[in-house]
């Protein structure tokens, strides 16, 4: 069995190009030479930490629907972010009291077609130019978009010039203190691991204002290798939206899968991570829930769950090969050989 993490929305949710007429399919991403990391599993090589499933409450039985297009993924993420930001942006508590509270920190991840500056700029434009979270009095909150480099910021300002009057831009390595003080909330777009200290310093300078970490340029699995301070910092961001497209290839068949978290009502403790695969039953829905998890699984844990699922339904269960062609559909980055 092989598990591929896809840069674009898999199969029926492959991303649409913003230019051709609307359709249910997206233009395929540019072909690249993928890096490969193959792991042959005969017996489990290490003991994975236990994953706890959510209780099958009536509220949990209603699974979030995977996005069927790029536009739908953007709409879901925008809705989740807008709901999460609305409460802290309209908190009327005195500043001294707010400083004693935990800073609101949110995280969102959406697949990108590729890792070019233009791809990030278009995705950020689609999500945040239409966010417009209102504050008391009706005026939209002032949003500061913090780009990872001058190249990304330049592309965003040159190619997309209709960001709106309530949106400002800055570059993470040279963000000015007045830009931080004049905004109501900040979004850090695709920061790199090497920028962790600058990201943390900027977030601290914004406290108690809410901050958003959008499409970080590292994978979730990499965070296990972070120093304790950095790991605690990135772990302080509540994931409001995350979508990962999967393709599961067995010896005799292949299926498409989804790992999704969609927090639409601000209930961070009650929303689970949902792993779904295509349903083979003719009368079944497009996707069926394989597992609901209280914490975010690593790719290795997803592989194990899908291996067990495929093995249970396959006559060949002695061995399987997991081929990681892409490290993260969210960041668009690939494993170095």
TrEMBL record:
<feature type="compositionally biased region" description="Low complexity">
    <location>
        <begin position="40"/>
        <end position="63"/>
    </location>
</feature>
<dbReference type="InterPro" id="IPR018962">
    <property type="entry name" value="DUF1995"/>
</dbReference>
<dbReference type="GO" id="GO:0009507">
    <property type="term" value="C:chloroplast"/>
</dbReference>
<dbReference type="Pfam" id="PF09353">
    <property type="entry name" value="DUF1995"/>
</dbReference>
<protein>
    <recommendedName>
        <fullName>DUF1995 domain-containing protein</fullName>
    </recommendedName>
</protein>
<feature type="region of interest" description="Disordered">
    <location>
        <begin position="1"/>
        <end position="77"/>
    </location>
</feature>
<feature type="domain" description="DUF1995">
    <location>
        <begin position="67"/>
        <end position="303"/>
    </location>
</feature>
